Histone acetyltransferase type B catalytic subunit (Rhynocoris fuscipes), 416 residues
Amino acid sequence: MDFINSDDLRKQFTVDGNDSMEIKLIRNPDDLHSDSCSFKPDMCHQIFVPDEQIFGYKGLKIKLYYTAGNLTTYVGMEYEERISAPGMEPDDVMKSLRKVILTPFETNFSEFERLLEADDTFRPHGELIHSCTVGDSNNPRTLEIYVNTTSDSAFLEYYKRAQTFVLLYIDAANYVNPDDGDWIFFLVYEKYRSVDMSVKYGLVGYASVYEYYAYPANIRPRMSQILVLPPFRRMGICVKLINAIYQYYVPNNRVVDITVESPSVEFQRVRDYVDCINCMTLDEFSSNKLRCGINQDMFTQAKNKFKINRKQILRVYEILRLYYTNLHNDKEYKAYLHELKERRLKPNKRVQTRKKKFMAFFGSDPEVIPPTLPEEEDSDSEEQALLESQLHNVLVEYEAVINRINKDGPPGINQK
Ligand SMILES: CC(C)(COP(=O)(O)OP(=O)(O)OC[C@H]1O[C@@H](n2cnc3c(N)ncnc32)[C@H](O)[C@@H]1OP(=O)(O)O)[C@@H](O)C(=O)NCCC(=O)NCCS
């Protein structure tokens, strides 16, 4: 028998958690046996701690199947070989999954197959606030968006099942604790016809929003976990979801503005696109006004009409200003870049002014240590390089948003 050392054995019997998982949202019985509808997680470090690796198996397949509407869950596990060596225990995959799947799940495949039928009569929880279509005219897909609060215990039980996805697709996400306060949930479903032509609903994404208190009797809703499930991405569903959230909150006078908790780059890009398209319908964001620079009326109008917060309005201004800048006109483009640079240098200038004031007051006192300024830690050229690279990244993102505006047409066309 060949001698295999334990490191080699470890390598041979270690698999990647993301590769091993196979997720499905089952709409009809054929999906159970078809590979075409399965998809992978983006991450699983909160399940297979710490490095997403699973030890003890060769050819491991973890099946995480959900019925598309009810989200009744099946977990199955298959492998080609399991380690059997003295002192080497395989990881307990089911135990890791049980820690994160908060509701009971099925492990018997035939029983799960039988439970599929219950999905025929599934209807979404909550209040319907928006319906629309996505996709091209040959294959339109109907979406319905429902809003739910924490007062519905049946919904909360349902949401527990939907929550598992945040661990698989949002970095460092935690499950929402409904006892924490004022959460509101927006769920997007596709309304579709099954093979027997009956109407059914399948979950495609959701957002949870925390309504922060704002003095004296107002709220500042913060979008916290926004997710469109992989099979439904790149169809414009996130745009519909963000706009539905705006339409829900804008008429409410208690809402100061709407914010987003640590947006991912992908989400920020969609949000920028939505905010730009919306603001392009406002007088204050006409090309003539944008060319004259940012002004208070832009802040006021964007906040009143769409509840966009100040920082995001500034971003929208910069994107739309670039949109209307003639890139072939050197002078125009340089003026635009100069404005961007100045705005990013301003916080440093403010710190310098504070230091000057401080020195004027305490300068002659040897006991007082003057504050260290961030810019003193770097040399001028390092600072300049950092600024240039920040600007480069910002421009790449702005251009991506502008490309989408150009591709998807002017506001009004895709607004429903
Ligand atoms: C970020 C996220 C919510 C976006 O959802 P989405 O529904 O795919 O978003 P959209 O379809 O509106 O836009 C995404 C892209 O698809 C493109 N797209 C939209 N419709 C399209 C179509 N019909 N054909 C081709 N591309 C299309 C958009 O142009 C955009 O591309 P871009 O990023 O290059 O500009 C989704 O990717 C997701 O859930 N990611 C993981 C979780 C996450 O990061 N959440 C945010 C936490 S804050």
